[in-house]
Amino acid sequence: MTDPTAPGDDLAPSGEAEATPAPLPTAVPEKTPVVIDDRERYLVAVEAIAAGEGPVAVDAERASGFRYSQRAYLIQVFRRGAGTFLFDPPPIGSFAELQEAIGEVEWVLHAASQDLACLREVGLDPVTIFDTELGARLAGLPRVGLGAVVESTLGLHLAKEHSAADWSTRPLPASWLTYAALDVELLVDVRDEIAALLAADDKLELAEQEFAAVLSRETPEPRTDPWRRLSGLHSVRGQRALAVARELWLARDAYAREIDSAPGRLLPDASLIVAARAMPTSKRELAALQGFHGRASRSQIDRWWAAIEEGRSTEDLPVLRSTEEVIPPPRSWADRNPEADRRLKAAKPAVQRVAEERRIPIENVVIPDHLRRLAWNPPAETTPESIADALRALGARPWQIDATAQTIAQAFVDASQGPVEGAESAS
After folding, report:
1. 41 and 160 both lie in a single domain
2. 313, 347, 380: which is the final residue of a domain?
3. Contacts by 158-165, CB closer than 8 A, 24 or more apart
4. Are residues 43 and 172 in the same domain?
């Protein structure tokens, strides 16, 4: 029998620091991953996947920050009993056979909203999903990146050093393929662990509502004036300078689309802003402008100068402010709409308490934009029913409405009776 008074292995000698925890074992793929880039091997892989069992883990790698398009340059699939498969979309062409094989089973994705569009672009479209990133949020995990979730659920270290790589590169380096394979090879096990956590907290039903909402979310309509998203545009004064900024943005976007390059790699936003503010009067002056730089700043100088000339001469001057309906930032509400300011300051801490009770991040309990819109323009009569109807119209899920409608309504009523004492900032 062990002597209970004897020092144990888990006790550090007096005055000494506790031992550093042993590092977690590093995850490695079951097999050396290879890329499938022909129809014959693709069809063999589809047969194996169809013969597998249970959910299918799916991921896609894009070349964001390098290419204009958001297409998938690699698609990874894992299924128990079948293994892991890495597909190169262009040489494969149609994915109709894979869609037929797995379309009706549950797909497991991490941060599904990031990949669904590019998967649908090649004809891969799930009916049911389990989003491990969203599930981890709802389960109350403190960190929800895939590496952190794998560590907390499976006790493995997952290297993530290639997340921002240029996946249009060919051939793909072996270390990148290992990274890509592990993105799906562990995902079904992670799904099972998170599902167990959600079930233990009675959150599976609300998680299913959230997954269904991600799956059914429509592609947002294109912005009326996408050029207004230029970083630093607020420093450009006057309609004529705004017209120059707009024409430069349009010229850069057209060229980026033409050569399939990320716009910022050709000319950074800061260069467009510098040119719009300086309003150069000649091509030479533009070329000499301090701060006007980028990979294509000189090679395409004629293109940029033509855009500036168009902006300087056009009669189609942009309005100073976007015509899109935009709620002002909450920091300005105290002066612009004091009643709305009080409502938001009363509702935020009230909903925060609901979030803490449920151990769910507040931004998942109620979408921040929904709460701001309700506070800015509430129903004529503030009742739980009217707030529920307004949340439903904004797209809130049933569980969110059940969790917050009563709380928000009461907070709005309290705010209408006077200033909110000790409320946090509404920003």
Report:
1. yes
2. 313
3. 158/26, 158/27, 158/182, 158/186, 159/26, 159/27, 164/64, 164/65, 165/61
4. yes
212-231 pLDDT tens trace? 999 998 776 677 899 999 99
Q: Tell me, what amino acid is at 46? A: V
Helix (H, G, I), strand (E, B) or coil at 346: helix
**Confidence (pTM):** 0.86
**Are 75 and 205 members of one domain?**
yes
Q: What angle do CA 417, 360, 149 make, to 5 degrees?
A: 155
pLDDT, tens digit, 9 for 90 and up, residues 68-120: 999 999 999 999 999 999 999 999 999 999 999 999 999 999 999 999 999 99
Q: What distance in Å separates the CA atoms of residue 391 and residue 371, rounded to the nearest whole number? A: 9
Q: Quick check: is 230 in a domain?
A: no
Q: Which domain holds residue 408?
A: 330-416
Residue identified by tokens 């169809």 is: 50
Alpha-helical runs (H) found in 167-230? 174-185, 187-200, 204-216
CATH code, domain carrying 118: 3.30.420.10
Backbone angles phi, psi at 194, to 5 degrees: -70, -40
Give the span between the Cα atoms of 201 and 304, in whole angstroms.
57
Q: Which residues contact 11 (CB under 8 A, 6 or more apart)?
A: none
pLDDT tens sequence across 33-78: 999 999 999 999 999 999 999 999 999 999 999 999 999 999 999 9
Q: What is the DSSP letter of 88?
A: -
Q: Which residues contact 226 (CB under 8 A, 6 or more apart)?
A: 249, 253
Asked whether 417 and 382 are in contact (CB, 8 A), the reply is: no
Helices (H), ranges, 83-139: 89-92, 96-102, 116-121, 132-139
Count the domains in the chain.
3
What does the alpha-carbon distance between residue 370 and residue 173 come to, in Å, rounded to a whole number? 44
Q: Are residues 251 and 138 in the same domain?
A: no
Question: Contact at 8 Å (CB) between 409 and 378?
Answer: no
Same domain, residue pair 253 and 133:
no
Residue ending a domain, among 313, 341, 373, is 313
- Please work out, in degrees rounded to the nearest 5, the angle formed at the alpha carbon of residue 226 by the alpha carbons of 225 and 227: 90
